[in-house]
Amino acid sequence: MTAPHRPAPPGGPGTPDDRAAPLLVLRDLRVRLRTERGMVEALRGLDFTLGRGETLGLIGESGCGKSLTALALMGLLPEGAQTSGSMRFDGRELVGLPERDWCALRGDRIAMVFQEPMTALNPLHPIGRQIAEPLRLHRGLSASAARAEALRLLERVRLPQAARRLDAYPHQLSGGQRQRVVIAIALACRPELLVADEPTTALDVTLQREVLALLAELVAEDGMALLLISHDLGVMAQQVQRLLVMYGGQVVEDGPTAAVFRQRRHPYTRGLFAARPRLGLPRGTRLATIAGRVPELADLPAGCAFADRCPWAADACRAAMPALQPAAAGHAARCLRLDALPELPPPPQRAPADAAGGPVDGAPDGAAHG
């Protein structure tokens, strides 16, 4: 038995006008966290939209706000966090949503694949029961029907010997198998938005490719919107249509993935690309690094957060926060010095990525190994 489709309410998500509207709209989203040094602003005016069936990537160093964005979208922010701005899902405002309403939404219409499956899964329950839980909670399936659907989901994510492993515990599975279980749980109720936070970090390269190909296939089959979070340039080159580069709790570059890879209009984006490992370099070649350190949240400056690490920074960059500046059609960067950045050489042309990997057209050499 398969999980029943969610009926579209009259005039709701099933209507042509609603289907054309963005599924997710963030406007000036700000999140403040309580720390030993007082309240600090960890997300500072996040703006983006995501349509049904679209794929969007968030990339940046640890601490830039990627995972916090995912937690905000799931209603799982740390205790004491303060949220302002707007976060609308299918026209419904999520900022200030009561926890009871979050519980009805989370795992049903919005689902998440967490970074570390061993901590995302409950070690005390068999995996079949954990997959069945959202089906019983949100779909009202009986225990036997939910178990049958859990088996179908495990087969769909290609877990070997799925029927035998329904009663297995997480510790009895390998890392790649556990990640497939986490994906099965996320897909159980056929969500409209899937948030994947570093879904391949704990896996080896071969398993990374398998899991990413599986995610791409399932997202395409179900028509879900995908928000993919990673620090890996190669993953983004292969998996997403649009890319947001984050630094200091803000988006510093926003554009189609191929355009961001090709033009790299923000100095921070250029620093990330320069620091990536590349095949074919002479033995002993030192990787480029970005000077300085990411500032603590309590020490973020009034101006550009990257100014103290930027070789092109001017006094104006430190005086006030730059707005996103248009760099090309559909492509923008939060930088006052766009005209000062040197032109980049044209990249070698590549074939477009397929579901199993391969860089997008225009991706620079070595991006797939970043």
Tell me the layout of helices and strands.
Elements: H1 16-20, E1 24-35, E2 38-50, E3 55-59, H2 66-74, E4 82-89, E5 92-93, H3 99-105, E6 110-113, H4 117-120, H5 127-139, H6 143-156, H7 162-165, H8 175-187, E7 193-197, H9 205-222, E8 225-230, H10 233-239, E9 242-247, E10 250-256, H11 257-263, H12 267-274, H13 315-319, E11 325-328, E12 331-333
Parallel strand pairs: 3-8, 3-9, 6-7, 7-8
Antiparallel strand pairs: 1-2, 1-4, 4-5, 9-10, 10-12, 11-12
Protein model, in words:
- Residues 1-5, 7-14 and 351-370 have low confidence and may be disordered.
- With 370 residues, this protein is of the alpha/beta class.
- The longest helix is centred in the middle third of the chain and has 18 residues, at 205-222.
- Strand 4 (82-89) and strand 5 form a beta hairpin.
- Strands 6-7-8-3-9-10-12-11 form an eight-stranded mixed beta sheet, with helices on both faces. Strands 2-1-4-5 form a four-stranded antiparallel beta sheet, with helices on one face.
- It is 31% helix and 20% strand.
- The chain starts with 15 loop residues before the first helix and ends in a 37-residue tail after the last strand.
- It is globular, with a radius of gyration of 21 Å.
